[in-house]
Each structure stands twice: as structure tokens, then as C-alpha cells.
Amino acid sequence: MNKHLKQLSVVSVLLFAFACSSPDQTPSLSYESYTLDNGLKIVLHQDHSDPIVALAIQYHVGSGREKTGKTGFAHFFEHMLFQRSENLPRNAFFQKIAAMGGSFNGSTNADGTNYFETVPRDALEKILWMESDRMGFVINTVTQGGLEREIDIVSNEKRQNYDTQPYGQSSIIIAKELYPEGHPYSWTTIGEIDDLRSATIEDVKEFYATFYVPNNATMVLAGDFDKAQAKQLIEKYFGEIPKGKEVPRPTPRPAQLSQNKNMMWEDDFARLPELVLVFPGIEQYHKDANALSALVSLIASGKQSPMYKVIVEEKKLAPGVNGNSMSREMAGQLHFSVRAFENVDLNDVYAAIHEAFARFEAEGVNEQELERIKIMQEVNLYNRMGSIQGKALMMARDNEFGGSPVASFNELKKFQSVTKQQIMDVYNRYIKGKTYLTLSTVPQGQKNLALANSVMAVVSTEKVDEIESKSEAGQLIDDDYERTPSAFDRSIEPDYLPNRPEITVPKIWNFTTANGMAVYGIGHHELPIVQANISIRGGAMLDPTDKRGVAYLNARLMNEGTALKTADQLESAMGLLGARITVSSGFEGMNISISGLAKNFPKVMELVEEMLLQPRFDEAALQRVKMQTKSMIRQNSANPRSIAQTTRDILLYGANGTFATPEYGTAASIDNISMDDIKTFYAAYISPSVASFTIAGDIEKADCERLLASLSSTWQATAVTIPAPVQGIPAQTATIYFVDNPGVTQSMIFVSKRGMPMNDPNYYPSIIANYRLGTGSQGMLFDVIRLQRGYTYGAYSTFENGLYRNSFTASSSVQGSVTKESVEIFKELISTYGPKFDETMLLGTKDAMMRAMASSFETVGALVNMLNNIATYGLPLDYVKQNEKTLDNITVAQIKETINKTMNPNDMVYVVVGDAKTQMAPLGTLGLGRPILVQR
Question: Of the candidates 248, 258, 297, 257, which has an alpha carbon nearest to the alpha carbon of residue 278?
């Protein structure tokens, strides 16, 4: 037995038969688990279906372990562990995983922190080396400069995701008001910026020594690996890390309210009033947890729920309702939320919520809805198992918090056994007559819409002219540090293992139906599920000029019932089959997204056919959908990213261009659309002559031919002419266009130009060229703007590849006070990228992209996306292999030529959405002329 290996505590193979699976489609999840002498819990799950491995480490520490005055520290510490360790230089984690062709991330919540990577199988030893360095060899490398830099980055994340987002303060207020002061859940994971700024190196060392110890974690290795070799490598890299002190597990501390509490918040960024009602709940794995989850779904999820019926359909107060039962390690919360239509009094919403409770109490449990919810719970578990990474994350959390790598399976059994009586019992125990918290979030100046007798919440926020960076700008200079002793030289990076995967494209079959629809498919039999997509070309390009949004509303209405089924009957029919069918429409086409269990897929396609050929087109539904759309438009008017994107499109395509208006239209154009307009659109443009069908999963060509036989005969083809989009007069390039968002502490920056479709010969060379500039965390934009300067949470560049609506955009949400400096960096990096691109950069790009390509067909969804590309752009069936050849043969000279052609900064417009009072004038010094203020 290995020196650091305890006797195997569990060696098991789990075969879990899903209730709705046929005997020959029983999925299996096998694993072996054991514990090292240092207490690190290991779970191994082999899956040889794809040549990749995923590693997930779940630490039993989240924001619930923090101290008062040190909030946000667990999440902040997650960031710190990406900086460097004794044997990995600063920011090497970002660079090395990308160079392996892999992906990675980490996350923190109230109870736990995880780190995870997915890489080609030959990189297994490399990620074990890296993760073990993070677990046992970090603390000596922490410097004051690194600490301050990460404080700036996390502060930017808070401003971006909370402080400048509509309703971003809601979770902060609810946590503070639901739990007593000092309770571990009385603050959110992100914490307070003032607390973060007070963090010291001593705090970091104490936190690391207490919680980042092997006996406080589970590590799961999943994928295509040799088990004996994996055990040896795990022993080598993790076995010598010392065990820490025992970490006590938290005990339940449920919230208790002595009386109802009504709070309110005037939100600078909200455009619609919202009411949230929160009851204290219970901790995870409590005996009532599954019944409570089912209860909340029955009350507020789905078109048959009493809350939807009362609030949406009958009283027409809101476009939708939401319910959620959140059970965490120490306590839980039952949330019911309603974002109402503009100017709706939240007192009316409050009364309607209670009316819905009374209706549920009077009518009791809808048995069919309960069955639907149970089936969809099962389908959701399938979806979590859809990737190697998903399995690793699920098993790691299950083992650390549920005591078994397959706790989710056990919980599913319990959920499926929940009875009507249990649901009514928990209703009486946790909702009926119980105290609760309400939060009214209203737009600025509309306190009159808040629930009566509400108290204004106190929230700590910043002003744009008060923001200062904690760290010094520029690349950090690291001090020497003492090295932790090790049995071998950890400074030597291990080589790749001798099993590098090759790029293997799954076999594609295709045919054309009798009515002219092109069909492309791939068999993928790991799980008994199927995904498909029907694409119908046209979309918003077919909208009349004065009725923008017709295609969008047509698609929305096709989800609202059929001639044979009301909307709620249709939803139930889908759920009872374990299916999801969604019709949507974009700028260039309409899509019907379909997923379900393989054994039920013929029945699923019958529903698709009914939705496609017999839409209900109900007038009341149209009025509701129009109100929902106008509410979305109203709220998007306050979203910085939406503002930047709409402004970009006007500048690139001209104010009168087809793509200058969002695909859902404007409030005025929506009002101008009638049911006759929609029926006319449907009759003229929904035809198989401009459609394609893509499908992947547990199905083969002969099955698919039978599946589509009925639709092929009943869906009649008509001639459809799709007009070319109108191109307006584009704006002057190499110019800054500023959109004022008064008082905002973040600035959204877009640097954009027109692009090209995926079938353009320049497209894939441009993807290769962009890799080192802005594709992911290895890009120069991320490296300089986030890692070196700490100005942002992320900075990237990408090509949008529609047939007609396409663009190159580099973007970031940056700290408002460094708007000028950030725009200057974008300009500098893009302008000098071509001249700086050399052979070393090209070799690194080729190797990383080749490695990533080898593992790009793991999921059914990825296969359908590949087929969609073939169908939409007329690409050859082997386009992936052709891309591989292009990547292998491209030269530095060709990359430079491509950069000059498709990423030329002289052809770009600069869009900044920020506080004009403090940030606009300084931009005039950047050599891009005087910024132009854009009215909105």
C-alpha cells in the first residue's frame, strides 16, 4: 500500500436506473473512492467516450466561514489562488491551461469553493502538478502588491455584477435583513468593498492555513485515464501535503423572523418595479427539503401554477413569476419574486401573491403538475451529466456536502417519492401563517410603487469620482520567498503523457426530406437523450420596416399553445415527456430548439409538428407577449452592455439599416403589430424550403427518417424570397462615441468593426489571429487590462459570424475612473498586435487550438452546434478537418495579413457607455478626435 494511502473506504460501482429509461438504456455512473492519509478524499470516475479528463476540487469553505468585518474574503481568496504558487509564476495558471487546449475556472458560494479544469487526457499530470501546488505551496508567495491587485479586480467584479446591474443590490439587502447580524448568511459571497480593502497578508495566511487543507476537500478525477497511473500521480503530487487541523462542520442555523419585515430600495438602474417575498427555509438534506422544492415549483413555476394564473393571466400585473427553494448548509430561503410591468403598484402584486397562496391551499396539489416536475427533475440530472466536467463538479460537491459522490442520485429518489400530503404538510409548516421578508425594488423617483410601510434599505455604494485603485498600476514585481520542502523538485513542469488525442470528427449522416428540408445528424449514444434544432432562415430581415419585431412575436406566440392545446396544456405535455421545445427568432432566422429522452422522442416530435403547423395565435396571448416584450425593452435601456451593443449596431450598419434595430423591435413598432400581421408573416415565411433540421444523440439515420416522415408530408413547401438587409450609412471610424450613463461607477467599452460570415475564406484565419489578442484568459487584453492593471474583471475580443450581421468586437466593463487609460490600452494593443505577432506566438496558438479542437465534440449540444454551422453556412461536412489543415499550415505572414484586413483599428468605432461628466472629456487626448456624445 502506498505510504500516504489509507485502506479504500469505498470501492463501488453505482448503476442507477432512471425511472423513465428503458432497460436497454440504463445509464451508469461508476466510481472508486478512497482517502489519503492527509484526509484528502479522492473520487475516480472513468469515462472513455472522449479523450479528455476533468479535475474538480471542492473545498468545504465559503463566505459562511468568514468573520464579521472580513466579508467577501472566501471569494477574494479564490481569486488569490489563481495568481501564483511556489512553482507556478504569476498568472501562469491562466496561460498554461489555455496552452494545453483546456478550460478552467473556480467559484465560491456561501458554503464552498471549487476549482476545476478540463484538458486533453495527455495533460493529466500537468493539472495534478498545478492543483497540488495550489493546495500545498501557495502561502509563501503572497505579496502585498498581489493582494492589492486582486482587491481591485474583485472590486471591479462587484461594481460590474452588483452595483451597476439592475436589481443587483437585491441579494445583498435580503441577506442582511433576513438573517440576524453576525449570521454567516447575513452577507453575500461578494462581500463589502470596504471589508476587502482592509484585508491583510496575515488574514490570507490564517484563512489558507485553516481551510485550504487536504482534509477539508474532495478531489474528483473524471474522464479518459488509466486508473493505476492516476493513483500513482495523485499519490506523488498530493500525498505529501500535510494534513491540517480538523475543520468543524457548520451546524444548522435557520433564519427566524419575529414579525414580517418590509424593505424597499430605489434602484438607479431598474426600470420596472419588483417585489420579492422571502420565507425562512431549511438546510440542505433536511427531510423536508425535497417536498419544499416541489411545493415552490407547484406554486410559482409553470403556466398552471396559481401564481402565474393570478398574476400573469388574470390580473396582468407582470410578464412572469419566479419561485425558488434555496437550501444551503446552515439555512434555507423560499423566494417568490415578481418583476411587474412599468408603473404597477407593488401593493397589488402583494395582494395577488397572497391570492395565489389561498388558491393553492383551496385547490391542493395538481397531480399532473407534480408528475411533470418530478420528470423534469430527472431530466435536469441527465443534463448535469452531459459533460465530463459536469460529472466531476457534481460528484465533488455531492461527496463533500452529501457524504457520497452520488448524493444527487439519492436525492432524486427522495424527490420522486414526495407525496401530495407531504407537500401540503410543508406548506402548512413553512408558508401558511408564517413570517416573511419583502423587498420592493423600484426605479428612482417611484417610491410610491413600493409596498406600504416599507423601510428604505441601507446599502454601501460608491460614487464614480470617489473610486481609487488599491494597487499600483503595471506588472507586479514579485519578491523572493522561502520554498516549502518537497520529496521531489516541483519546479520542473512534468511533460505531457504519451497519449495525445487526435482530432476525430464524428460521422455525419444527411439527407433531404420530401418537402425539401435539409437534414444533418450524428449518433452519440453515451446517454439516452436527443437534441435537435429546426432553423428557418429569414428572421428580422423579413420584418416590414414599420413593424420591426413581427418575426420575434411570431416565434413567441408559437410557444403559447396550439390549435389543440392551450399554453399550459402544451407545457404539461412537454414536461410529462421530459422534453423542452422552445421557438425563438433572431436577426437572420427562427429556431426551434428541441431536447428530450430518446425513448420519448417520437412523441416529442409530434408536439413539435403540432406547434409548427397548428399555432394557436391567441389574441390574449399576443397582448401579454407584447407587454412582456416592451418590459424587456424598457429594462434593456438601463443595461450598459445592451446600450453599447445597440449603439455599436447603429454605428456599423447605419441608423436606417436593417440591423440598427434589435430583433425584437422598439416599443413603438411592437404597438404597431396586429394578429393579422403575424398570421400573414407565418403564412408567407414558415416553409421547409428555407429550413434545415439538425439532430444528435441516441439516434441514427434510419430512426431520424422515420421520425420526420409525418412532418415531411404535412409541412408543405412554399417559395420564400429573403431580401438582402438594408445597409445604412455607417459612422466615421477611428472615433469615440460616448453614451452618457450618469453616475455609473463602471464604463462599458466596445471597440468594433464589420466582420464576415463563417463561410468567408477570411473567417477561420481571423479566429486563429484573434486567439492571442482576446480569446479567453490567455489573451493580451485579459493579461494587460485585468492581470497587469486590475482595471476590470475581464477583457476579450470576438468575431460574431452571422451571414449578414457580423462584427469584430473587443470589449470590457472597466472601473469608471480609468476609462481613458482602458480605451488607450485597447487602442495600443490592437494597433500593435499585427507588428508584434511572431513565430513563437503562432506556434503557441497552433498547439493550443489543436489541443482544444481534439476535445470539442464531447457534448450533444456541441455536435448540434457543429451541424448548425454546416446547415446555416453551407459548409462542407468535413469543415472541421479543413480548419485543422488551415491551422496547421498558416504562416506568420498570413496572420499579419489577416490582422491588417479584419482587425484594422482604423476601421473601428469606439463605444463608451459611462459617466460623461467625469469620463468623456479626457478621452479627447487619445488621438481619436473629440468624443461624440450619442443621444439615446
Answer: 257
